[in-house]
Specification:
Blueprint lengths: L13 H4 L7 E7 L6 E8 L10 E10 L7 E2 L19 E5 L6 E5 L7 E6 L1 H4 L4 E9 L4 E8 L8 E5 L6 E4 L13 E4 L4 E4 L5 H4 L5 H5 L6 E6 L4 E7 L4 E9 L7 E9 L5 E9 L2 E10 L2 E2 L14 E2 L3 E6 L5 E6 L4 E6 L7 E7 L23 E3 L5 E5 L4 H7 L8 E5 L4 E2 L14 E7 L13
Antiparallel strand pairs: 1-2, 1-30, 2-3, 4-5, 5-6, 6-7, 8-9, 9-10, 10-11, 12-13, 13-14, 14-15, 16-17, 17-18, 18-19, 20-21, 22-23, 23-24, 24-25, 26-27, 27-28, 28-29
Length: 461
């Protein structure tokens, strides 16, 4: 629905967005690993002054089973204020929620209600018109909704790519790529919007990921290890950058929010040489895109008897960096180590020389470190990270992907979601929904009401 004036949650610049009011609600994608009951969107109260602070106050069950909700996004965001945006008065109102296993997408209305209402379902055969399946990440662009996908349509393994949906009708417009060059594997994407550059990363095709990490493929260095740079306007592949095939699975992409800058960060899950994880900075220099490893996180030795089968031969716990998030002011980078159960905070004011400022332990394959509000061992580790627009609050959930959960936490991953005060870098002991709060489902990604550090793009510095 169009507005007479721009949506008040849109900001022309990241500097303006950092002064936005604090979020009062958080939306959480939660899924049923057994696929015997529907996945859901849970809604958390994030207002410290509310009597329901830290509790689940809204809930929307989806109509089908087996979707496995993963990453989701808003129908519109601050990119609608870009000078060439054809729909400047579109409203941030709908959550666009893909099912990674089902290839089904849900459109949920959040306006004037706590529990979102499903208003449209895009069935798998409708999404297949794009040529893709297994939708994964959603970003709101100036002229449409971009949805990355891991697989091809009609049972084809690949290539994965990006589908574009209409902002208003949510109709599938088609495949984004005009010339994909050598790109075949897909995962995340984002852009340097003022420079007409889009960046994509690589994970694997559906058969490579849906039953968990395949040891032969990992040790054979068959998972993704490249970044791809594209001409955003012409929709053509520009350049491939290979991190080296020992660096398997470069996943989450976090470009600088400042639209005048052309650098960003990507987290790499693991190195097959030593099980370390890493974060790399990409940048444009000497007329070409380049990458440089700027953070290296080693594996931690462990008694094989306490490790899951998949790790016993190695006698160590890999950090497994599965998500990173960059504050809206581009000053802090948060890195989640799902394997070791650690979340790290870095000063990235110099993106080539990150300085570690703090570290918190929670869960972990061996540590099972409890949250200060609950004196009990925790399974799972900090996984999806979300940062508030003002950079003062950090949210972490504990489930990664059902098949991975089962491999690395075979005794169960549990269900919890924590909030961290970014300045003191300590857990908020009043905010720890866990266990039955999620009604048997596993929480995955968090989206904050009004936008967050991984939802919006800006055209003005």
């Amino acid at each position: 629905m169009a507005l007479w004036t721009p949506d008040p949650t849109f900001y022309p610049s990241p500097r303006d967005a950092a002064s936005a009011p604090a979020e009062r609600l958080a939306y959480v994608a939660a899924f049923d690993r057994q696929a015997s009951r529907p996945d859901a969107i849970a809604v958390l109260d994030t207002d410290p002054g509310s009597p329901a602070y830290g509790e689940v106050v809204g809930w929307t069950d989806l109509p089908y089973t087996g979707d496995e909700l993963h990453h989701f996004g808003w129908n519109a965001c601050s990119s609608a204020l870009c000078p060439y945006a054809p729909h400047p008065h579109v409203e941030r109102r709908y959550l666009v929620v893909p099912g990674l296993r089902s290839s089904r997408l849900y459109i949920l209305d959040t306006k004037d209600r706590v529990s979102p209402e499903i208003v449209k379902v895009i069935e798998p055969e409708q999404f297949a018109r794009s040529g893709y399946s297994r939708p994964h990440t959603v970003h709101c662009g100036p002229e449409g909704l971009y949805v990355s996908a891991l697989g091809g349509a009609d049972g084809e393994e690949g290539p994965g790519g990006i589908a574009v949906l209409d902002h208003t009708s949510f109709e599938v417009l088609g495949r984004w790529e005009v010339d994909r060059g050598p790109q075949y594997l897909a995962y995340d994407f984002w852009w340097h919007i003022n420079h007409d550059v889009l960046v994509t990363s690589e994970w694997g095709t559906p058969s490579m990921i849906e039953d968990g990490v395949v040891g032969e493929l990992l040790l054979g260095r068959k998972y993704g290890h490249r970044l791809h740079f594209w001409d955003l306007r012409k929709r053509r592949h520009l350049q491939e950058v290979d991190l080296g095939d020992q660096y398997q699975m470069p996943l989450e992409l976090r470009p600088a929010h400042d639209p005048t800058r052309t650098y960003g960060f990507v987290g790499v899950v693991t190195s097959v040489e030593d099980l370390s994880a890493s974060v790399w900075t990409w940048f444009h220099e000497d007329g070409r895109w380049q990458v440089r490893k700027v953070i290296d996180i080693p594996a931690e030795p462990a008694d094989p008897s306490v490790l899951p089968d998949v790790l016993k031969p190695f006698g160590a716990v890999p950090p497994l960096v599965t998500d990173i998030d960059l504050s809206v002011d581009d000053q802090r980078l948060y890195v989640s180590c799902w394997g070791t159960g650690e979340i790290k905070q870095y000063d990235v004011s110099d993106p080539f020389k990150p300085i570690e400022l703090g570290s918190l332990r929670i869960g972990g394959i061996v540590g099972n470190t409890p949250h200060p509000a609950l004196a009990a061992p925790l399974r799972g580790g900090p996984q999806m990270v979300e940062v508030s627009r003002d950079g003062k609050r950090v949210y972490v959930s504990n489930s990664l992907y059902g098949a991975w959960d089962d491999q690395f936490y075979p005794e169960g991953v549990g269900a919890w979601l924590a909030r961290i005060d970014a300045d003191s870098f300590t857990f908020d002991e009043r905010f720890f929904p866990n266990g039955d709060a999620f009604r048997g489902l596993r929480p995955h990604q968090v989206r904050l009401q009004g936008g967050d550090a991984s939802s919006d793009s800006y055209c003005y510095p």
